Amino acid sequence: MSFDLSVFSNKNILLAVTGGIAAYKSAILVRRLKDYGFNVRVVMTHGAQAFITPLTFQALSGNPVHTELLNPEAEAGMGHIELARWADLLLVAPASCDTLAKFAAGLADDLLSTLYLATKAPVWVAPAMNQQMWAAKATQRNLNTLVEDGVHVIMPDAGSQACGDVGLGRMPEPEHLADQVKDYFHQAQRAIAEKFGLLAGKRVTITAGPTREAIDPVRYISNHSTGKMGFAIAAACYSAGAKVTLLAGPVSLDTPNGVKRINVSSALKMLDESMKQLEEGCDIFIATAAVADYRVAEVAEHKIKKAGDELNVALIKNPDIVATIAQQKKRPFMVGFAAETRHVEEYAAGKLVAKKLDMIACNDVSRTDIGFASDQNAMTVFFAEQYQMEKRDLEKASKQEIAQQLIEAIHDALHHEIEPV
Ligand code: C5P
């Protein structure tokens, strides 16, 4: 599943590294967190510096490393209170016995223990230690206290340890820790979007990409649609709090995070799946697919053999998916697209009425700088007459930005009082 790496660029992870051989894994952890787009600052205890140098973390995090509580120079940069406020998550990995004990007792005699008391951010600890030290009554007592205090404890793995022992106490692999952090922020963002997003709680179905109409078992008719616009809209709808199903024709794009994807090939299959979505419940239907207008009347059962200078293949019209859905009794809010090379607005306005849509977004595909395979687009949006809403010009921008503006247009129309027609 792909992930939009920019989504965490406003999230700050304060990674605290304490004394233990697992500190070397924390270097990789910084890399993985940075890969996900997080801002990372590193705090090191004196014990940690016996295992790995601050310079390593400075180079990997791109930020100075914090080691001292009462160092005037360090406090002049980002002081401990500022650092505690900066953090959206305090992640202690590895967390030594000593650190757990300090946290449990509420000591504040070094930078990390002070940060622990001074931060409002959630605190996660990933204990790593010798299995006997993990099992020690004092350690378990301290862990219980921390859990009661609201600290999230990431359980250590079992296995062979650097000291030669075998048992519980290994820090989980850095990739696994980074994934847990990513999932935590992702779920938190999702919960907010589902409550407050522009499409909070809406069920959206989107058709995207081309369709493929078989001629025989090895050949087909299709078009150059890449599906990029539809996929960008699916991602934006999900970020806006919607439950999204993407009916995708054959395209080579990753499924946007959180989106349910159903792959289809022909127009008939796309219609079939669209009707199923309608039955399951759909509030908004967005048709971005470049559906083949015609399909082969009779698909050959076997590969057609070369013969003669001419080959005629009879075509019959495909159903219009968006128009069919718009005719249903319990119809969703219908959004169509129109790609034209001339009389763009006139043709689009005609389709809005003919297909009984609520909204249509049209673009001029004669322009070579936008549309089809491009990463950019520009559009004009029209609303059905009963909305009495002015058309909107969406200036040339990335398909992601255009998708966002389309969602705003849908949201505005859904909240607009409709004039009876
Ligand atoms: O008529 P035209 O193909 O230009 O209309 C484009 C709009 O109609 C798009 O929203 C497209 O996804 C939709 N459409 C459809 N089924 C078809 C043809 C077009 O849903 N068979």
TrEMBL record:
Residues 204-421 are annotated as: Phosphopantothenate--cysteine ligase. One of its GO terms (cellular component) is phosphopantothenoylcysteine decarboxylase complex. Pathway: Cofactor biosynthesis; coenzyme A biosynthesis; CoA from (R)-pantothenate: step 2/5; Cofactor biosynthesis; coenzyme A biosynthesis; CoA from (R)-pantothenate: step 3/5. Gene3D superfamilies: CoaB-like, Flavin prenyltransferase-like. Its EC number is 4.1.1.36, 6.3.2.5. GO terms for molecular function: FMN binding; metal ion binding; phosphopantothenate--cysteine ligase activity; phosphopantothenoylcysteine decarboxylase activity. One of its GO terms (biological process) is coenzyme A biosynthetic process. Residues 1-203 are annotated as: Phosphopantothenoylcysteine decarboxylase. Keywords: Decarboxylase, Flavoprotein, FMN, Ligase, Lyase, Magnesium, Metal-binding, Multifunctional enzyme. The keyword Transcription regulation does not apply. Residues 11-183 form the Flavoprotein domain. Residues 199-412 form the DNA/pantothenate metabolism flavoprotein C-terminal domain. It catalyses: (R)-4'-phosphopantothenate + L-cysteine + CTP = N-[(R)-4-phosphopantothenoyl]-L-cysteine + CMP + diphosphate + H(+); N-[(R)-4-phosphopantothenoyl]-L-cysteine + H(+) = (R)-4'-phosphopantetheine + CO2. InterPro entries: CoaB-like_sf, CoaBC, DNA/pantothenate-metab_flavo_C, Flavin_trans-like, Flavoprotein. Binds 1 FMN per subunit. It comes from the Bacteria. CTP binds at D293, K303, P319, D320, I321, V322, F337, K351, K355. It holds the Pfam family DFP. The keyword Secreted does not apply. Catalyzes two steps in the biosynthesis of coenzyme A. In the first step cysteine is conjugated to 4'-phosphopantothenate to form 4-phosphopantothenoylcysteine, in the latter compound is decarboxylated to form 4'-phosphopantotheine. Catalyzes two sequential steps in the biosynthesis of coenzyme A. In the first step cysteine is conjugated to 4'-phosphopantothenate to form 4-phosphopantothenoylcysteine. In the second step the latter compound is decarboxylated to form 4'-phosphopantotheine. In the C-terminal section; belongs to the PPC synthetase family. NCBIfam families: coaBC_dfp (TIGR00521). This is Coenzyme A biosynthesis bifunctional protein CoaBC. It comes from Acinetobacter piscicola.
